[in-house]
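User: Please predict the structure of the protein below. I'd like the answer in structure-token form so I can feed it into my own downstream comparison script.

Assistant: Understood. Taking the following sequence of 354 residues as input:
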Amino acid sequence: MTQEVEFTILMPCLNEAQTLKTCIVKAYEGLAAAQVSGEVLIADNGSTDHSPEIAEREGARVVYVSKRGYGAALLAGIQSAKGEYVIMGDSDDSYDWSKIQSFVEYLHAGYDVVMGTRLKGTILPNAMPPLHRWLGNPVLTFIGNVLFGTRISDYHCGMRGFKRASVLQINLHTPGMEFATEFVAKAALHRLKMTEVPITYYPDGRSRRPHLRTWQDGWRHLSFMLLLSPTWIFLYPAAAMMIVGLIVSLLLLPGPLYIGSIALDIHTLLVSTMSIVVGTQVMTLGVVGHVFSVNSKILLPTYVSRLASQGSFLSTGLAIGTALIFIGIFPTLHAVNLWASVDFGALDARQALR
């Protein structure tokens, strides 16, 4: 510990007395096998089972984190790390800390982030619940890859290495389990250089239940992905609704449209015009959400956010909106005139709606 620290082995800890000593011993073995200098840092998140004392006795450094949560513990640990590189992972003995050479090699090769992948590695029996292995992880990983343009096979592997300076600049802030998703998504959004290495995943050595809650934490991961993707969630669907609605409306304005035995008339016209209205509202919501995310430092500034933040954008929008209001007055007056022509009685719906 008196020499310069190149690597920090970071483990979040909440009552891991059963496995912490084993993990620390293996971590020092891994540093020695990789022939790099380093420290073992335990981010203790309020343990009541003497985990901090065990860590210090085994030569690890302990940072005490009062704010509860997986992400909160890791964020504090990253801030406190002395190493140029950090390799983080759980302290439940589910990862073999003695085998970190591949992480070291890729980090030395210039990668900003090196993800462990259990799904391309080896998952030992009883190490991962079937629901996580065959549904949760693959589905959330697929969604993340689509939304953020990544090619990661295991979004939620807890063992990952990174350049500390690179990760500090991407403004991670989530305190819970969704930190794992935020880490990968923001690394992709900031275009950090990423790769992954297969690892072996072991059954954890704890006798108590794990901290992970399947459905609650799964939803937190998914909802945070959606928060980081206003373009996919709002702008693309809204544009599709508006374009389809406009095309169908223009085709039906002259009269009914027959496709074989199918007749499209005023009911389809009503749906298509409502599609334009709803699409416009959703697109507006998407722009507002995008600007909010940028201002909250969740997303990087984009062309959309820069454009929407300009004063000219607001004034142009108000001008267009006002013009549409006045344009809408004329067909409205025409409709009233049609109604008056039948002494304000029943209208021909096909004519009036068009």
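That's the full token string. The longest strand covers residues 113-123.
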